Amino acid sequence: MEAVKVGLLGLGTVGSGVVRVLARNDEEISRRAGRAIRVVRAASRDLSVRRDCDLSGIALTDRAQDVVDDPDIDIVVELIGGTGIAYEMVLRAIDQGKHVVTANKALIALHGNEIFARASERGVTVAFEAAVGGGIPVIKAIREALAGNTIEWLAGIINGTGNFILSEMRDKGRDFEDVLSEAQSLGYAEADPTFDVEGIDAAHKLTILASIAFGIPLQYERVYTEGITRITREDVTYAAELGYRIKHLGIARRRDSGVELRVHPTLIPHRRLIANVDGVMNAVLVRADAVGSTLYYGPGAGAEPTASAVVADLVDVTRALTVDPNNRVPHLAFQPEALIDLPVLPIGEAVTAYYLHLRAQDRPGVLADITRILGDLSISIEAVLQRQPAEEATDASIVIVTAAVREANMDEAIRRIEALDTTADHVTRIRLENLN
Ligand SMILES: NC(=O)C1=CN([C@@H]2O[C@H](COP(=O)(O)OP(=O)(O)OC[C@H]3O[C@@H](n4cnc5c(N)ncnc54)[C@H](O)[C@@H]3O)[C@@H](O)[C@H]2O)C=CC1
Ligand SMILES: N[C@@H](CC=O)C(=O)O
Ligand code: NA
């Protein structure tokens, strides 16, 4: 049978990885797909850059639309990134009846509702396994392998750069900026690395995971998002003394009144498998009613791990070319007309335990004032750690771990604690999840 012809947009970290993997595993891939898969044309903004792959046999251009408009091309692979030209080219490809494979989570999180509707109208598929968890087949697992379950919640380490930074800072005492530059040179980081460290990339991915888990439309703008830039070495140390690790998690939880969607640093008991996911590795823990807990683990970023997911999508799309479009796996796991508008709850309605760290004068009665405030707001204390001031300082450090509480109650407690004369005017709070 004739080879499937692929047009590639972007020849950066992931694009080059895709060219390499397709070439190296050509035979295995054809045996699986039933046909060979060939990149015949590729676009890159700067053609003078040396690529880490063999481009012989691939017609090159610096204009993405040359690839999209090429009538020979069956599948367009978008690996440019962002929501500008990538958005235009994906819609243009769909309008021409071409299937699309993309690793672009920003594009899917922000414009997926429109893109999938347009793709369904045109009877084409937009595949996006690489958009979440890099090489981990987590979209496929949730969308297909858990299809018999009601999913209750999921929690994931879904940004490789952020996890790499936190792990290197904790284990080797390295500097934030220094580790970030290394993540950039390894090709892990986004074009704008604030997307990684401010939690935006994780929020894009959580948006996608929540949609396919619960059958709700993509709603990136409703995700509560905090990054990792304010985590201090001191908090990492205190958390460890109390038996926890700090991880940057994306959490989606179904409640009676709606769904929680939140991305933030989180204390997790150090014995949990997910607490031991380090470096560029990602992991997504899914709690579902029939199967119980399942954990998906693997490299969350990098050229070939991400290419692995892109190429798997190419094989899926190739196999589905002959399938009636109505019988393909739906983009968001549930049939488009079966998506439901579960309300996304405001962060004040989230229910979690907390780690609090504050500085207070080292004299009698101070801790009693603090515990009274917590008690007045029905917040139970699980553990307290007190550290005397260093010689030159006058304030002691007090660390408190609480039981689960509605976030709005904790907001009020923190406001009252900060207003005490005996405390410094900033309480650090980090949410804590037992994940059991
Ligand atoms: N690097 C990674 O580990 C992962 C990246 N992704 C996603 O994959 C996509 C690509 O990421 P990377 O390969 O890391 O980016 P990159 O910056 O290494 O490569 C982007 C490529 O797009 C090309 N490009 C930019 N503007 C263009 C235009 N107007 N016309 C034609 N080509 C243009 C650039 O020349 C470059 O070849 C992004 O959506 C990213 O979020 C997803 C998972 C992991
Ligand atoms: N910048 C992202 C790349 C993969 O999605 C990350 O670090 O996870
Ligand atoms: Na994936």
From TrEMBL:
- Indicate what this protein is called per its UniProt record: Homoserine dehydrogenase
Q: Which organism is it from?
A: Acidihalobacter prosperus
- Identify the pathway: Amino-acid biosynthesis; L-threonine biosynthesis; L-threonine from L-aspartate: step 3/5; Amino-acid biosynthesis; L-methionine biosynthesis via de novo pathway; L-homoserine from L-aspartate: step 3/3
Binding of L-homoserine occurs at E190
The record lists NADPH as bound by K105
- GO MF term list: homoserine dehydrogenase activity; metal ion binding; NADP binding
Residues forming the catalytic site: K205 (proton donor)
Q: What is its EC number?
A: 1.1.1.3
